[in-house]
Amino acid sequence: xxxxxxxxxxxxxxxxxxxxxxLTQRRExxxxxxxxxxxxxxxxxxxxxxxxxxxxxxxxxxxxxxxIGFIPSHLDFGAYVKGWKTSTEYTFATYFLNSFLITIPRIxxxxxxxxxxxxxxxxxxxxxxxxxxxxxxxTMMLPLIILxxxxxxxxKEFGWLDTYLPMIVPxxxxxxxxxxxxxxxxxxxxPRDMEEAAQIDGCNALQLxxxxxxxxxxxxxxxxxxxxxxxxxxxxxxxxxxxxxVEKYPVSLALKMSIGATEEVEWASVLAxxxxxxxxxxxxxxxxxxxxxxxxxxxxxxx
Length: 303
Hints:
Layout: H1 8-56, H2 61-66, H3 78-85, H4 92-123, H5 129-139, H6 145-158, H7 165-168, H8 177-188, H9 193-200, H10 205-216, H11 218-234, H12 237-242, H13 251-259, H14 267-287, H15 289-297
């Protein structure tokens, strides 16, 4: 049986090595604490307006304009009740229903049209493909405001004014080019092995799309749904231009109407119903958070 003896030099080296390891661990621990502290501080700064919004919905007008803190003196849900009733003959239930009547059909036609167009750009070769794709990407640079007048005149000729069609039908033709571009980039990163195997088994293009491509596109499609839901719920200019009947107003217009309905604005009621208006978008985001982040940050499958 052999025994290992440590010389004074080797013992000193081991002590120095252990001390260096402890110092490295301490530095890493301090860096981690500082990193999370900075992230927490930045997160608090970003979330503070939302926290203040919720707290201010329980305050009076005087408290809202004199106190910067977000904690109310007492919890009073009267502002929520009054804001929900609105100053018109309709409650916010009507306006939420109107928003969903615009949002849900628009999401459906957006997903169908954008997936089809992205599939064509990513998987087929045809004359003028690069030029058309460049034109499509170029339209993303156009300010939407310059399209409002010609669109308004066109929809007026169609007799679609004061209906939801001007806000839904254009999306059925893949006019939301950002979504097409995002889906194309995602598709370009998907290997074609499964598609080639399915083609050997006799699948046509539509069968490939439905059985192979769409399941692989699930994260990107969920990203499209989340983006379109939030953008449509927040859209103000479209309903303002095309709708003239109060009964058809979505939530975005109803909120503006509640601000300008009286000379003295009950800001607590406006803030309270603003909190309620945020709930659908927040719920959709958190429900699809995992797939949404994966689809928005990826451009394909990484093996």
